[in-house]
Structure formats: C-alpha cells, structure tokens
Amino acid sequence: MPDRNQAALDFLLTRRSRPAKTLTGPGPDLDTLEVMLTAAARTPDHGKLEPWRFVVLGKPALTRAHALVSERGAALGYDAAKIEKEQLAYDRSPLAVVVVESPVASEKVPMIEQTYSAGAVCLALLNAALASGWGANWLSGWASFDRGFVRDAFGLEDHEVVAGIIHIGTETVAPPERPRPDMNAITTWIDV
For residue 45, what are the CA distances in angstroms to 42, 51, 67, 110, 159? Predict the structure, then answer.
C-alpha cells in the first residue's frame, strides 16, 4: 500500500468554498500569495505549455473593476439589478486573482486540454488559499465574459479569456455544509 497523506485527504474531503460576499480584509500578504500561486502553477499541464497566467487584483484594482462593471453594464443595456449583483463580487474581497486562459499554439496539445489545465489552476489556487487558512471563492459572472471589461479591467489580449476569478480574504462567517453528489448516481464501475 502506498503512503497515505491523511491530512491532505481530510482537507479535500471537507473543503468548502467561502462565498465572496462573506470575505473581508485583511487578505494574504504578497509572500503568502506567492506560495499559493506557486502551488496552483503545479497543475497538470500537458506539453508544459503553461496556457494560463495570473492577474492579481489588489483593493484599488477591485474598486476600478467595480466602477467598470457599472459602465459596461450600462453600455450593454443591462438592468440595474444585474449590474449591482455583478458589482458585489468586487466590493468586499480585499484581493482577487484572475486566472487567465492564455492558449498556446500546439500541434500536440489540443485547445480543450489547455482549457482543462486553466480550470485546474483555478481549483488548485482555490484549494491553496483554503488550505492556507483564508476564505476563498471561485467566481466568474457576465463581466468576465465581456471583451471590453476583461481588456480594460484585467489587460487581457484578444486570444485570452478568464478561466476564473479567485477571491481571497478573511472569512466573516463559516458557511453551512451543502448537499454533495450521490456517488452511486454519478459513478459507473467497469470490470471492478
């Protein structure tokens, strides 16, 4: 039998995201955040292409994003409630990390695998933040799919998209456990 890392397994079996609306300051310092980013960058990456990158948003950048959501929402004709809901994501968190899918041309690695790798980076960063004792949440929202917003708020190039935005801060309340999948309903066993 292989050696078992029970602490890591216990963490994964009990991990729970913290809603961004329940996060406040302080957030992690830059040295602590760098450890989390380093952990996230250890994500499986077929071909070693690194088809993702990080954009770290401090509080001033989050405040600018909040204002830009209002501008872009109005330009797109969205109602006030939709705009306000999107703005909430940028209100309370002291820090957020945008995981940017930045695909690399490759004959060997299909784009879908690069997309999966970027998604895995999001989960790895979320788990690194939670394992470090911070509250964290993986969000997106309509603004993260709007080309004008992601260009102006995050500096994305035309070929890049937001894989996820990981909000990190101090949790103000622990969320209750939520229902989890019925493993029998989602698992097919073949020749076991």
Answer: 8, 8, 35, 12, 19
Phi, psi of 120 (to 5 degrees): -65, -35
Question: What's this model's pTM, rounded to 2 decimal places?
Answer: 0.93
Longest dimension (CA), the chain: 60
Tens place of pLDDT for every residue, the chain, 192 residues? 999 999 999 999 989 898 888 899 999 999 999 999 999 999 999 889 999 999 999 999 999 999 999 999 999 999 999 999 999 889 888 999 999 999 999 999 999 999 999 999 999 999 999 999 999 999 999 999 999 999 999 999 999 999 999 999 999 988 888 889 999 999 999 998
Instruction: Tell me how far apart the alpha carbons of residues 73 and 146 are, in angstroms, rounded to a whole number.
Output: 10
Instruction: Give ∠ CA 80-85-91 in degrees, rounded to 5.
Output: 115
141: left (phi over 0), alpha (psi -120 to 50) or beta: left
Q: How far, in Å, CA of 23 to CA of 84, rounded?
A: 17
Distances (CA, A) of 59 to 70, 91, 138, 153, 190: 17, 9, 17, 13, 50
